[in-house]
Structure formats: C-alpha cells, structure tokens
Amino acid sequence: MRKIAMLTIAMWLMNIGMLKSQVFDATGSSRDAAFAYEVKQIDEFFERFNDVPNALIKDYIKKEKGIVPTRKSLVASLFDRNRNTWEASTIQAFMQQVLDTAKPQFAAFDSQDWYADVQCQFLYKGKPLDITLLLNIEKDTTGGMKWMITNVYAPGVTVVPDSLTHSKRSTRKFLNPISHATGFIGIAKAFDEPQYLPDYVDSACLQKQIVTSVLKAAQKKELVLQQVKKVRYHFLQLPGWLFTVEYFDRPSHNAGWLISYLEKANDPQKAAYKRKLYHEL
Questions:
Q1: Distances (CA, A) of 125 to 2, 122, 145, 222, 245
Q2: Which residue from 119, 168, 219, 253 could staple onto 230, CB 3.0 to 4.6 Å apart?
C-alpha cells in the first residue's frame, strides 16, 4: 500500500516539475552527480529556494545538460520526495504564492522568523540526557549577525536558584552567523568555557530559571556536552505558511536539507507553533 502511495505522489510531483527528467532526474549513479544534487548546507537551501544566479547546482546542470533550471524546478526539488503524506493542493498553493511573478517571495537568512532546533546529548551528573537548544539569528544595530540561544528545553535538569558565574571580558563570546555550516560545533566550544555561557543566550531566555539552572550545572561541571545529535530548521517568515527543513542522508538526487513539513498558517497559528517550539504549551 505504501509503495502505491509513493508512486502516486511521485507521478504528481512530476507534473509540477520536481521530477522533470531534463533537470532533476534520478538517473546516473556517479558520486559527482550525487554530490552536486545534494543540498549539502542550509546555505544551499537558501540559494536554490531563492534562485540565486551563481548557485552551484545551476552551474552543474547547465554544464551537464545544457539547460538552466527554473526557480520552479529548484523549489520543487527541495521537498522530501520520500514522504508519502504530502497533499498536492497544499504544495501547489505554496508554490503558486512563492513563484508569483508579480510578487515573488524569498527566504531571508537575516530574518528573525526562522529557528535552528538543535538536539544535543549531554552527561548530567554522569547520566545521558538529551537537551534541546533553540537558536535564532540576532542582528545588531550595525548589521552584524550571530546565532543566539533563545530557549532551552531540559526537563531532566533540576531547577535551582539563579547563581551564575560570568567573567567579564572586553570581547563578548558569540556563535558566528555561519555556525550552522559546521553543525553548530561552536556550541561545544561554548560549553568548554561555561563561565561565558550567558554571552550565548539572549536576555529574555536568561530570565528563565531552567535556563540559568542548565548554565549553572555546566559551570559546576555537572552537565557536560557530548555531541550535537540533530539539527532541524523551522521557517515562519513567509506570509501564510510555515515549514521545517531537515537533513536526509541517502544516495539520491533528492538528499540533504529538504522540506519535511509544510502547513498553511495564519498569524495566530504561527504564534501557537512558536509557543510549541518554546515548549510553552
């Protein structure tokens, strides 16, 4: 039954351009082709979604096939084709809005309406514990940007009174705006110097007791980061829509950072979704 559903979806996607053989076909097994088609970084997702002129995939397709992919085919290729629960009408409505020639819409890196959902594994008092960090792009008055921790979900950490240690330095610590390109390895560096952890957290987040409790546990060496397990991105910046992007590691021309979830959403629905991200429901 699942194979029939997958086939039906694939046939429909072909009609909107996602599987056009002349652009994003599934033929060929060379490593070069697989590497070229994979959306290797979230930056490449932005490039393809926004149809950036110098996008690597456009150069590759032009060289290999002698054609330039349209934005329609690029955006359509960013959906996870292995998901068998897509609704054709939803994707069609989304693409129609995004590709509107009179008022096309684009994803903006410097927008505050997208979030990195970073699932981390820690040792807490010697036992494994998963903690989710929610990060957001923050832009200062000079136009400089950085990733900031905007929420911490750590239900297994004991809440204690706020008593943080923070050595003052002339240069503030921060996660640079390309931290996502390295899988947020900068978070490990931050927890290696726990006395400066408050520098990585936005002011509103620092008012939460669970957040200061996590930072205090790190400063006391009770909480030690082991690894970043998974990253997922939530986009709420396009009017009337929200979607998530996840990484799919597979030998396919449809691999890498792809849209895994899409939903029509008005402002109240987006606000409710954001409360779920912050675990406030």
A1: 44, 10, 35, 5, 33
A2: 119
